[in-house]
Write a structure and sequence with these properties.
The complex is a heterodimer of chains A (316) and B (197).
Chain A (H helix, E strand, L loop, with lengths): L2 H17 L5 H13 L1 H16 L8 H4 L11 E6 L15 E4 L5 E4 L6 E4 L5 E4 L4 E6 L4 E7 L1 E5 L8 E5 L2 E15 L2 E15 L6 E3 L3 E6 L3 E5 L2 H7 L6 E8 H8 L6 E4 L2 H5 L1 E7 L3 H12 L2 E5 L2 E5 L1
Parallel strand pairs in A: 7-9, 16-19
Antiparallel strand pairs in A: 1-2, 3-6, 4-5, 5-8, 6-7, 8-10, 9-10, 10-11, 11-12, 11-13, 13-14, 15-17, 18-19
Chain B lengths: L23 H10 L3 H9 L5 H21 L6 H17 L9 H6 L15 H13 L3 H11 L5 H8 L3 H21 L9
The chains are: A alpha+beta (316), B mainly alpha (197).
């Protein structure tokens, strides 16, 4: 095997482990060491990861397209019920909802794409709002109410039922509703949970002590710790601006603001240098207001805006 | 809007690391360089070398452009990628490491601006799905099955192992091989293969 082929095997093994949610602080540090060891490692990993991320759209493939690919499994073959919301616009197929019903286990998959937003109402009246680039699996049956948050961000307004708890699971973390409005956002290496009303419990399957969140509290859960901070309600409400199609920045670095806008837009903002990335900005922008954003940055900081294909580069 | 919000505790902002979305070289590599892979592979294949050698050459090209990008993001990227690829082939011919299929003169005559149009960077969703399906169909059946169970049905490694009647270790191997094959199919295939029918 050539050394490149060897590196590629290592890179795919990292992708597989991360994807399977087999992750811990120790693996994270091994992974970082491997990534930092050589640019060749990073390049191989970035390439495979980019391809793997593209396969997220596979959920929009119809079971009929794939049926011959899966051997029938007696109890759990797909029942081929599929709802497809077509013609929702230019690049919305993946954002259209692919709902699969399986006899066992019973769950539905919902996914939004770049700039997409969906509101789901469950049978009990609970509401789940999905932000852009979000994917969930929903188990809603007599036994359980469970959401597996695969990626992205969602806002939950849950009808509490002590005998029928509602849980959100993402990676190694679990959020249990105790009568609640809250948001959950996946972040690199963990989860961010913000509580608006009621209470919710956050715990980690690696068994740290569960944390109960009260209104105004934000938990940041990583592989092996959960930290809680109290935030003004107004700030939490602003962070949920996406529910109204707004992004609100307070002393946000241009780097973070660009990453946030890039969740919603096909054109990508790229910050060319570290000094520009550190500038901080305040303001409220529509999620699709990439032009308003670049104009503001240009006027306030005198930065240079260059259009380059699908990218908008901000530089000094 | 402009007044400073006071917070009791500040949550440390997520640091842009080597793997972060905010790493500028990574973002540039994924969005600018990878879409050129199909054209680059076509170019490298003209050297008549084995697929394994060509994959090595491709990574060497990537390494050199990224080394440059770590100092300053090059723009435009396409001529640079093809110049590096060409020089790499020329070096190898000169060092006698390969039997030249095309002479150095031929290589030098290649228009480095890259005459083949790059694949559309934002494929329409429908095309992207067809492309994904085509890529899946090229995988070995067991590998494809494991990948679909993971990616579409969202089963865990153990659930996939049970369903397919294989060990968890073998599931990992299937997924691993699938990730690598999908990257080749999604980035490295010639552009016409991207067109359905």
């Amino acid at each position: 095997m050539t050394s490149h082929a060897n590196i590629e095997h290592q890179a795919s093994a990292w992708i597989e482990r991360r994807d399977m949610g087999e992750w811990s602080a120790e693996l994270q540090s091994q992974f970082e060491a491997w990534m930092n060891e050589a640019l060749e490692h990073r390049i191989a990993y970035w390439r495979l990861e980019a391809a793997w991320n593209r396969t997220e759209r596979m959920v929009a493939l119809r079971p009929a397209d794939l049926r011959q690919s899966i051997r029938p499994a007696a109890a759990s073959a797909p029942r081929n019920t599929f709802k497809f919301a077509a013609a929702l616009g230019l690049f919305v197929i993946a954002g259209a909802i692919g709902a699969y019903y399986f006899s066992q286990p019973t769950y539905q998959t919902f996914a939004t794409t770049l700039g997409g937003r969906e509101v789901l109402t469950l049978r009990d009246g609970s509401v789940i709002e999905l932000n852009a680039s979000t994917a969930i699996r929903l188990y809603d049956n007599a036994k359980e109410r469970r959401v597996m948050l695969e990626k992205g961000e969602a806002y939950f307004n849950i009808q509490h039922d002590a005998s029928h708890p509602f849980v959100v699971i993402s990676g190694n973390h679990r959020v249990t509703d105790l009568g609640t409005k809250f948001s959950v956002r996946t972040e690199e290496g963990g989860l961010r949970v913000a509580l608006m009303e009621g209470r919710a419990e956050v715990d980690n399957l690696n068994a740290t002590k569960p944390v109960v969140l009260n209104p105004g509290e934000v938990a940041v859960a990583t592989a092996d710790s959960i930290s809680v901070a109290r935030k003004p309600m107004r700030e939490l409400a602003d962070q949920l601006g996406w529910r109204r199609g707004q992004i609100i920045f307070y002393h946000t670095t241009l780097a973070n603001a660009a990453a946030e806008l890039n969740r919603y837009n096909r054109k990508r903002l790229v910050i060319a240098d570290a000094a520009t990335a550190r500038l901080t900005i305040n303001g409220s922008f529509p999620t699709n207001g990439i032009d308003a954003f670049t104009q503001a940055a240009e006027q306030v900081f005198g930065v240079r805006i260059t259009h380059r294909g699908d990218e908008i580069v901000i530089s000094r | 809007m402009a007044d400073k919000i006071k917070t009791d505790h500040e949550i440390a902002p997520h640091a842009p690391g080597v793997d972060g979305e905010l790493c500028p070289v990574k973002a540039w590599f994924v969005h600018e360089v990878l879409p050129l892979e199909a054209a680059l592979m076509q170019f490298l294949r003209r050297s008549g070398r084995s697929e394994a050698d060509i994959a090595d050459l491709r990574q060497e090209v990537y390494l050199r452009v990224c080394q440059q990008a770590e100092k300053e993001i090059p723009h435009p990227v396409k001529p640079l990628v093809f110049t590096i690829a060409r020089n790499l082939l020329i070096d190898q011919v000169r060092r006698g490491q390969v039997i030249p299929i095309e002479s150095v003169a031929d290589l030098e005559a290649i228009n480095v601006a890259g005459d083949t149009p790059g694949p559309d960077r934002t494929l329409m969703a429908r095309e992207e799905l067809l492309l994904l399906r085509a890529a899946l169909e090229k995988l070995p059946p067991r590998c494809r099955e494991a990948l679909i169970l993971r990616r579409i049905e969202g089963l865990s490694r153990r659930e996939i192992a049970e369903r397919m009647g294989i060990s968890e270790h073998t599931v990992s191997e299937h997924i691993n091989a699938g990730v690598r094959a999908l990257a080749n199919a999604l980035y490295g295939e010639p552009a016409q293969a991207r067109r359905p029918q």
